[in-house]
Amino acid sequence: MPNVVCIGAQWGDEGKGKIVDCLGPRADLVVRFQGGPNAGHTLVVDGEKTVLHLIPSGILHEGTLNLIGAGVVVDPETLLQEIDGLVERGVPVTPDRLRISDRAHLILPVHRALDRAREESLGEAKIGTTGRGIGPAYEDRVGRAGVRICDLLEPDTIEDRLSLHIRERNVMLEKLYGWPTIDVKEIIKAAREWGERLAPFVDDVGVTIDRALRANRSVLFEGAQGTLLDIDHGTYPYVTSSTTLAGGACAGAGIGPTRIDKVLGITKAYTTRVGGGPFPTEDQGQAGQHLSVRGAEFGATTGRKRRCGWLDLVVLRHAVRVNGITSLALLKLDVLTGLRELRVCTGYRADGREIENFPASLRVLRACEPVYVTLPGWEEPIEHVRSIDELPPNAADYVRFIERELEVPADLIGVGPDRDATIEAGNPFDTPSRLS
Ligand code: GDP
Ligand code: IMO
Ligand code: MG
Question: What would the pLDDT profile of 123-157 be if each residue is shown by its tens digit?
């Protein structure tokens, strides 16, 4: 069976949770490979909403094994809360349904404090992080000063690593930012409890995936954030601290690139962004307001209002290229209902020049003016539509325009938040796709 990587093609919140949940029954394993509790993935089943931050979005399906890979930064407090929340609602979370890589790094209270202290000190220049400690935890990981899940299982190791680590970080908190320090003893005590509770879930996740692949099982890799938040190929420094691209699935899960068959790029039918940083097609007028209200555009993790704007094909072309996207999931098409005209950005212009590729420099990007084409909108509600032929002609034309421009088929089209509110125009597990 083919193995598919699902990634966000924009600035996050494209609807990855919905799509992974929707495809869940076709996968034996669902693997998160990067990011941490900065993610907020929403699943809606028969009107009931579940928001996941660390647990992979296959958890609602009985036969699916959910894995948290080595590339994820795990906040044990958030993870335990998430497990308890699901169990309370009758969703079993047992080691035969959830495993956590022994190599994954921990987010500690000191990371959360540093994240917030740094943002506060940046003032106007702040990144607008989720405040979940993501940046500082990844810094410690590459700085070889991190604490890993496997350390939690060794009381002596964890004590040594934590003492050293927190003492150093406390100096930063206190001397640089004037923030209260973290009590080392309290964290060591908490870490013992985390270790006891999480021990049954700890696994060598790369080995588990390899075994499944050898047995011809199907694996779905679930990205977090989105392409433009990628540490290398995003709008740096207004990005997150991990590799959000499809390529990141390999290192983050612990498999080789030869095991990946397809890449499903998930995008909204328009664009949103939460936090600071450039957003060329942002619309602060009536259309933006329509998208914000009809799309209920508030962050699933922080509750912040998302900035809204038109679909940007420069962004999506960049995403198709850097991820090797083989098909698209085009979500929230229903949100466009009622807009008389739809603008789609097909290119940028800066200083009288055409800009073909998404620029690295924020100064160049800020000078870019989007070039729009205008397509006719539609008035009919489309939430009930389950086949592309039943869409209003202008809605079907909007989808076809995007497919043609990107040269990638839209296999899935979202017409509502519910798992079932999806048009399956093609099968993202199939090769070849419709357009090829
Ligand atoms: P993720 O982070 O990529 O998983 O996306 P989020 O869950 O943060 O945000 C996507 C939001 O859009 C959630 O509230 C979803 O329930 C909702 N959603 C997903 N697909 C659709 C769709 O096709 N139509 C509508 N109206 N809402 C959708
Ligand atoms: P999902 O997986 C949207 C944004 C933050 C901020 C920047 C850095 O739900 O799509 P961080 O806390 O990661 O250091 O913040 O990245 N951000 C997201 N935006 N969706 C997300 O995740 C995000 N995770 C981080 O708003 O701009
Ligand atoms: Mg989200």
Answer: 999 999 999 999 999 999 999 999 999 999 998 89
Taking CB atoms within 8 Å and a gap of at least 24, the contacts of 123-131 are 126/276, 127/237, 127/238, 127/275, 127/276, 127/277, 128/238, 128/274, 128/275, 128/276, 128/277, 128/304, 129/38, 129/240, 129/275, 130/37, 130/38, 130/275, 130/299, 130/301, 130/302, 131/302
Q: Is 13 a catalytic residue?
A: yes
> Across residues 425-434, what is the average pLDDT?
74
Please state the atom number of ligand 1 nearest to the C-alpha of residue 57: 4
On the question of pLDDT at 293 being above 60, the answer is: yes
Fold of 105-198: Adenylosuccinate Synthetase, subunit A; domain 2 (1.10.300)
Task: Determine the distance separating the centroid of ligand 3 and the alpha carbon of 168, expressed in angstroms.
Answer: 33
| C-beta 275 within 6 A of ligand 2 | yes
Fold of 267-424: Adenylosuccinate Synthetase; Chain A, domain 3 (3.90.170)
Specify whether domain 4-101+203-259 bears CATH 3.40.440.10: yes
Cut 0.85: pTM above it: yes
